């Protein structure tokens, strides 16, 4: 089991939530204020440790086999697994933007919102 911070399609109600195979949500949390947050082609969000914004997400207790067999294969090429800092100083796995995509024209900076659901509602 491992902690994973989800901030996009894997959250409750999202199109990738079923990839969690029923893993329990531990709560809604925020990241530490050290990230930039992007919309990638208005298809999915991506966080990158190069800013000062907090990101809203959900924390799950996920079996590593579910991560390996279901969640990672469903992620787009722009994202990779990394470790993020949470608001309380703790750490969790998360999907983060690969460095080579940081200057892509496909990115819209939504750091000022820090919330994928809120962004989709705009």
From TrEMBL:
Q: InterPro entries recorded for this chain?
A: AH_C, GGCT-like_sf
Q: Which Pfam families match?
A: AH_C (PF21986)
Specify the superkingdom.
Bacteria
- Which intervals hold domain Allophanate hydrolase C-terminal? 4-121
Q: Whose protein is this, by species?
A: Lentzea kristufekii
Protein name per the record: Gamma-glutamylcyclotransferase
Q: Which SUPFAM superfamilies match?
A: Gamma-glutamyl cyclotransferase-like
């Amino acid at each position: 089991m491992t902690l994973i911070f989800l901030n996009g399609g894997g959250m409750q109600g999202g199109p990738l939530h079923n990839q969690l195979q029923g893993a329990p949500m531990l709560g809604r949390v925020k990241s530490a204020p050290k990230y930039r947050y992007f919309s990638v082609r208005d298809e999915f969000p991506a966080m990158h440790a190069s800013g000062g914004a907090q990101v809203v997400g959900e924390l799950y207790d996920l079996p590593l086999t579910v991560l390996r067999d279901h969640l990672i294969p469903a992620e787009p090429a722009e994202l990779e697994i990394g470790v993020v800092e949470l608001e309380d100083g703790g750490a969790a796995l998360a999907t983060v933007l690969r460095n080579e995509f940081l200057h892509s024209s496909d990115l819209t900076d939504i750091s000022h919102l820090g919330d994928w659901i809120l962004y989709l509602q705009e």
